[in-house]
Amino acid sequence: MAGHRRRACVFIVVKVHSGIPIIAEAFRKESDALRRYRTLSRGINIDYDEVDVFESPIK
User: Fold this and answer.
1) CA distance 39 to 22
2) CB 25 within 8 A of CB 12
3) Contact yes or no for 25/13 (Cβ under 8 A)
4) Rounded CA gap, 41 and 55, in Å?
5) C-alpha distance across the termini of the chain, in Å
6) pLDDT tens digits for range 22-38
7) CA atoms of 49 and 46, how far apart (whole Å)
8) Could you tell me how far CA 58 lies from the centroid of its own chain?
9) What are the residue boundaries of the structural domains of the chain, listed by start?
10) Could you tell me if 33 and 11 are in contact, meaning their C-beta atoms sit under 8 angstroms apart?
């Protein structure tokens, strides 16, 4: 499609410890965000902690 461009976005990695967000980091590249996600996911208590990646458009 001529003139069709993908919207710019950032990927946000958030780590929550016992219900409290303790880390939020933004990345331009999804691969960088996923690498950080894997690093932060090591050793978390799966009953109380969580790490996730969110995609957000840049306006």
Assistant:
1) 15
2) yes
3) yes
4) 18
5) 22
6) 999 999 999 999 999 99
7) 5
8) 15
9) 9-57
10) yes
